[in-house]
Amino acid sequence: MKENLKNLLDSFAGKTESAKGKTKEHIYKKEYFTSDDADKQKSEREQIRKTISKTFKSLNTYSLLANKEKYNQLADTFLNFYFAVFVKNDFSLNSIMSDNSQNIELKDLVKKHLPNLQKRYESTNKKDSEKQPKKK
Is the model's pLDDT at 36 over the cut of 60? Predict the structure, then answer.
């Protein structure tokens, strides 16, 4: 009985129940937050969402202007942020935004640029691994 309860509780690790009774996963790393205060964390989550919005709007602008240098600089900065803040790093929409997000315009921008960010990450890491000497 205790083992079943423990397994059930473990299955909810990193998840909370929403006001509508649905279970939702935490998308942000706990260690990112500077305080245990719920209001402070809410403010920090809001800042994360604003950062995502500004970043993807800027990426889109640089893409439209064909400014590869600024696009790549911002992409690299965002990738550092992405791996520092988010729990899931699989370059999916759900890794950055929760399912209940109502901002359709931002969702479309994220869907448009995530594949480019993933390619940038993979190509950068491939170059880094090629620079390191091979172990014998």
Answer: yes
Domain locations in the chain?
Answer: 28-131
* Tens digits of residue pLDDT in 78-133: 999 999 999 999 999 999 988 778 889 999 999 999 999 999 999 988 765 555 55
Contacts of 41 (CB under 8 A, 6+ apart): 33, 35
Instruction: Name the nearest CA neighbour of 99 among 22, 14, 12, 11.
Output: 22
CB neighbours (10 Å) of residue 8? 9
Going by C-beta distance under 8 Å and a sequence separation of 6 or more, which residues neighbour residue 99?
A: 24
Look at residue 132 and give its three-state secondary structure. Answer: coil
Say if pTM beats, i.e. exceeds, 0.70.
Answer: yes
